[in-house]
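mind reviewing this fold:
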Amino acid sequence: MVFTTSSLFLHTLAEVGITHVFVNWGSDHPGMLEELERQRATNGSRALIIVTCPNEMVALSAAHGYARVTGKPAAVIVHVDVGTQALAGAVHNADRGRVPILIYAGSSPFTTEGELKGSRNEWIHWMQDVHDQPTIVRQYMRYTAQIGSPANLPHIVRRALQIATSEPKGPVYLWGRREVMEQEIDQSLLERQITLTKWPSVEPTALPITAAQRIASALLAAKAPLLITSHIGRNHAAFAELDALSRILALPIFLTCPSATNLPTSHPFLVGVSCLAPGTHTPLLQSADVVLVIDIEVAWIPMNKDKDGAHERPHEAAQIFVIDSGDPLKRGVGMHHNEADLVCQADAAVALTQIREAVDNQTAFELSERAERVRKMHDAWIAQLRAAESFPISPSSSGRPAPYTAPQILAALRTAIHASGVSREGTLILNESASSYHLPYSHMEPEIPGEVMSSGGSSLGWALGASVGAVLGGRVDNKGKAGTGYELVASVVGDGTFLFCVPASAFWMARRYLTPFLTVILNNGGWKSPKLSMLGVHPHGYGSSAIGDELTVGFGPDCPDYSQIAVAASGGWAWGRKISADLAVDGKNAEELLQETIAEAVRIVTEERRCAVVDCVLECI
């Protein structure tokens, strides 16, 4: 029986707690394929769960979804330089989203005449021999290393995982030449104990005592404090601490570009959500005398102005405190600056606990007036959401029903989920709705940590692969009411995002690994975001009055039926419907059609355990 460095690599992954490996095999992996088949043939099973992924970006997105749900790293295996390149924007998402993932790629053999086992024997081995393969992804990785020998392979893997799981968490990249990975080893190397016991992640850091006291004192003395966050909810312990501190101080909270559920929508001091389009920030920002910015990428855009022409940024006299769990200076960003009086690196849950303990709880009574004022702002925000979700009582002047809007569709989805009896703990919404990005965090009304999440990056094409990974991760992490996995995973995407997600690969994987999820497509007929970007710079230019197809951002006039892509890719297993407000079905009005279609889609996923796709046509760009 032959064992190789590849055998040791797979053994090490299993020994240190990796359960799922998302793979796209190539000519650099003979030893791995041989080892996996040896395990199956001799043991009846494999030590790792191998998830075959026909596309690399989908593979890394699936690992991303798995890691976000479980809090544990997954592994991805791809093919030399070309597979590394094909990871594409998912690399950016894993980096910006601070997701721990171990990526391995083989590399072309370095011998050409059979000097070693694994020498070049295919023409592609010359084509794929590049000078510096890891440089393709190095600036996005927390760590890169070459496996040069089986002797220290377990050390390299454990160091990579130790770094990946320490703040700021993120992806790591390992690579090895084929001759090295095909090198025969003694079986005794596979019998040694390999654990992470002496390779722990770095413990969460705290604020210096003086910093905690300074922030607490400023918040206590503030007349108009404000807290802004984006992803504090990734740390579930921080979710409860944020709730507690906000209630003690009647502290209003505003979310910018969220990538996690940070606070219950019903929280009386949550005053809004924005993706920082001009005029959408909270007016509290301009009048705040103390601003606490915690776990966030972009708190405000300095040049943005409100409807009255005033800049949407803090007053010059405001005290600004910045706290980030891993990278408060954003070292991975070329230019980034928030004017601040204090910048701290500290775990959000630990920092908020320190601040809360430094605050005199007896001040709560004195803050009743501010609490009431902030509650009214919260109630007004909720009323705006409800108004946006409503359907017009009378038809438009043309006599035709108005096109569906994103808030109406999200409200229908929320209603259908609640009516289905699915528990909050068993529900996960993955949001990648591009120009409607901020809306699911409002209209889906999440209440518990982890209920709604996004990639944390900006490269579209994450949601479908992430859905597959999230369903798998939910089973591992005992999610849901019964502890057997999520009852419903739903992705909300735009039509452009849907195509970026490589749906043929994603839905093939869903069928192969029985990972049912719902996809709701907000179909506006193209890429709205580039059009909005153009209008932001050239509001009155030639393109300002052009329709999407004229502007080359539209997908018309003959748009695909996206739902049927899923049906075809899954061999007929997935269920799909396309609906439009102006196409009556069985005499139903637009609202009835929307509600019944989405309710049926939820039923398909939760009861029949199949994928469902609802392609909802909005007003065309």
Q: What stands out?
A: The longest helix spans residues 368-389. The chain has three domains: 5-190, 209-381, 392-617. Residues 209-381 form a domain with the Rossmann fold fold (CATH 3.40.50.1220). DSSP finds 21 helices and 18 strands in the chain.
